[in-house]
Amino acid sequence: MKEYIKLLLANKAWAEEKIQEDDSYFVRMAEDQTPNYLWIGCSDSRVPANEVIGAEPGELFVHRNIANMVVHTDLNLLSVLQYAVEELKVKHIIVCGHYGCGGVRAALNHHNMGMLNKWLRNVKDVYRLYSGELEGIDNVELRLRRLIELNVKEQVINLSKTSIVQKAWKYHQRPHIHGWVYGLDDGILKTIYDLPPGSPVEPIYQYDDL
Ligand code: CO
Description:
The chain is α/β, with parallel strands linked by helices.
């Protein structure tokens, strides 16, 4: 049997199981979505957004990319963010990194990776911001762990620099932004950084005519 066939078979079994539990399940699902959370996570196959927090379909709006980045020129991320905040009116945004992140690890080396260089440059910029602290950590694996945490913190801060978030904070007192890191080896989420609505934003990034 071709490998991908099992996906279609599993899908059929899953859909049947859902209907057996609740015969109006897909009728309700097809009506609308009202998720309370926007999840910005890594593309890594071992960090499935819904699964690690026990969320059902409909509970989580999801954006994933390599190393869970919030890049201010990324039209994809910005479109997801605007839609989540302004239309879905999410109450929380979760930026979720994970220990052992291959993207962050790659950013620490000096290989020319072609187009990936441009994406990983954003992680290298985080390294530069914290190079003093990071270079004080001799153990390479511990240094990587710390960079993964600091990268999550910086992506949370990047969200607060957007006019989308600042406007929602000003007029709607939401969303609350959370920075978490997931442990591949224990399945546990750790809080790294937290920005409640109305948190201070560095003056140079503030918009005064929202
Ligand atoms: Co990763």
